[in-house]
Amino acid sequence: MVYKKVKLKDGRTTMLDWLKESDLPELVEVLNSVIREGKYLFMNNVITDMEEERRWYKRSSKEGMLYLVASVDGKIVGGASIHPRTDKRSHVAEFGVFIRDGYRNLGLGTTLTNTFTEVARERGFEILQLSVYATNKRAFHVYKKCGYRECGRLARDIKFLDGTYTDRILMELFCNSDVEDRV
Ligand SMILES: CC(C)(COP(=O)(O)OP(=O)(O)OC[C@H]1O[C@@H](n2cnc3c(N)ncnc32)[C@H](O)[C@@H]1OP(=O)(O)O)[C@@H](O)C(=O)NCCC(=O)NCCS
């Protein structure tokens, strides 16, 4: 069942749908294309072990992961998710998003980011957190626009395969105004 239909800046429609186990091969292919770009994600190597991927899906679903896949013209072009933390951090979830090259700058990342803020609020999460590389100006722009704020920075935390470094910026979004008071 389609969760949401959204019009992109180029007039096409994207369908947002909850991830199913049967989507994994196509989704992993899209994720691998972003991993191969080498600039945006933590992993250096593409995913090849689909059995491990299926185990990851089952484990994460049990832990409360929520994952939306975005499709255009019947093909998966990206995904986004929130993963709840546990125990004394159960009020926190981690947000992540990726979109295949060729489907960026069409508003999809903004839509997915805002959609998960709504979902997190509905599910009672208080804080969303993420991290982004300082070199990833587009992602940083999108997160700021969607209400995240920079709350920390790990200097030179990321070393790319070409030997250059970048900082990893930590960002947070408080879902409800009543968690604004810090102790
Ligand atoms: C980051 C990402 C999710 C954003 O999604 P998207 O669909 O491309 O983003 P949108 O089209 O919703 O918005 C892009 C915005 O960034 C702006 N932008 C584009 N390039 C930019 C740049 N180099 N610097 C600053 N802003 C930039 C656009 O102008 C647009 O801003 P606006 O909406 O205020 O006009 C997507 O590009 C992506 O998946 N990139 C590769 C993987 C990745 O970086 N994942 C996130 C890891 S933290």
Report what the structure shows:
28% of the residues lie in helices and 36% in strands. The chain has 4 helices and 8 strands, in the order ββααβββαβαββ. The protein has a single domain (2-179), classed as 3-Layer(aba) Sandwich (Aminopeptidase). With 183 residues, it is of the alpha+beta class. An 8-stranded mixed beta sheet has the order 1-2-3-4-5-6-8-7, with helices on both faces. Bound molecules: coenzyme A. Residues 34, 40, 97-99, 104-110, 132, 136-139, 141-142, 145 line the site of coenzyme A. Coenzyme A binds next to strand 5, helix 3 and helix 4.
Key attributes of the depicted protein:
183 residues; alpha+beta; Aminopeptidase; eight-stranded mixed β-sheet; 4 helices; 8 strands; 36% strand; binds coenzyme A
Integer tally of domains: 1
Query: Which superfamily, in CATH terms, is the homologous superfamily?
Result: Gcn5-related N-acetyltransferase (GNAT)
Strand order of the largest sheet: 1-2-3-4-5-6-8-7
Which shape, going by the Cα principal axes? globular
Give the helix/strand class.
alpha+beta
Bound ligands, each once: coenzyme A
Note the total helix count.
4
Query: How would you spell out the order of helices and strands?
Result: EEHHEEEHEHEE
Rg (CA only): 16 Å
Average of per-residue pLDDT values = 96
Distance between the ends:
42 Å
Per the CATH scheme, the topology name is: Aminopeptidase
Strand content: 35-45%
The major pleated sheet works out as:
8 strands, mixed
Q: Which parts are unreliable, with pLDDT below 50 for 5 consecutive residues or more?
A: none
**Percentage of helical residues?**
25-40%
Tell me the CATH architecture: 3-Layer(aba) Sandwich
Number of strands: 8
